[in-house]
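Ligand-bound model needed. zinc ion.
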Amino acid sequence: MEIQKKIKESYNEMVQLRRWFHQHPELGFQEEETSQYIKDYLRKCDLRVSSIAKTGVVGLLRGNSDGPTLLLRADMDALPIQEKNVIPYRSLYDGRMHACGHDGHMSILLVVAKILSRFKERIKGNIKFAFQPSEENGGGALKMINEGVLEDPPVNACMGLHLWSFLPTGAIGIKSGPIMAGREHLVLTIKGKGGHTAAPHEAIDPIICTANIIQSLQQIQTRELNPDQKLILMFGKIQGGTAANVIPEKVELEGTIRYLFEDDSMNIDDVKQRIEKIIRSLCDAYKTDYTLEYKYSFPQLINNESLTDFIISVVEKCNIHSQKLNIVPLFTMASEDFAEFAIRVPSCFFFVGANNGKKETSYPHHHPNFNFDEKSLMIGTEVYIRCILEYFKTYNKK
Ligand SMILES: [Zn+2]
Ligand SMILES: [Zn+2]
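Prediction:
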């Protein structure tokens, strides 16, 4: 197959692109160099290129005939991590690193765009190649949507992928329904009255109240939730007090709620109400006050059933280096703002195994030694291209 040959020939380019992005990591909404690099590349592929959401880029490929519009999304941002890898393509910037694989996502999508731009006669519709800023802290997907990425031409379906070091190379993690958790970022302040630890009766101790709140909130998971539903409530940050003999004025906490609800018997608003009720009643009991706010949230990522079945059927037929891909039905309590696309348009998000069994590719995402098996770039590219071509065949008939 001519396209397969092109994919093979493009492997070195995929690696080069990935390594350039790896050397030039930029944080959310600051992806200036990255954005320019992508625009220059897409223009050379003869795509209509536009800027969106500050540093985001969309390349539009119009096929030779009318039909549906498919959006493929790659995230662009890096993390504030000092890279520890000793590799020739190490990050050039102190304190910033592509430690999640987004460098690979951009490389895959650029090569897919380049290859398909030469096969316009096989695209019966349009493809939007959407390069999204700021995934890690969220905000990028919603900003692109608010600025019209799903319009003109209107998008009929979205696909996204994530290279995944928790899966071996050759595995594709995919399932319909909930696949990645919803996430809420919670900020809580417990206010007491400062004083001397020798005279606790003169003060109101916010620390003992906080200790009880942290413990009591865990009951929501263990006593109120159907065990089929998944919920994690964790405080990752707690600050209170300055000295051993001083009762502080207040304690400040930040945490996350992550949830993956299989059905409608539970919803996140009910959980948030229960959280507030427990905090309120404990503050009453301890004579403290509180403020509670939610800084930002990601919806849970729910894969559209028929689009996911369609992608699984394409993946089943893939033969890469004469090997079949292994389909793993997985979910994760990590979150993704691709979910913003998925709640608006039929969408599917899947994981591409990127761990070759060696130590270098076995670190978890966001680790200063994170790296992935570059062979996975080829797999991601081939799966995307096959899904796209098959999509235009199948969905033009319907
Ligand atoms: Zn990440
Ligand atoms: Zn990521």
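Residues 125 and 316 are 24 Å apart (CA to CA).
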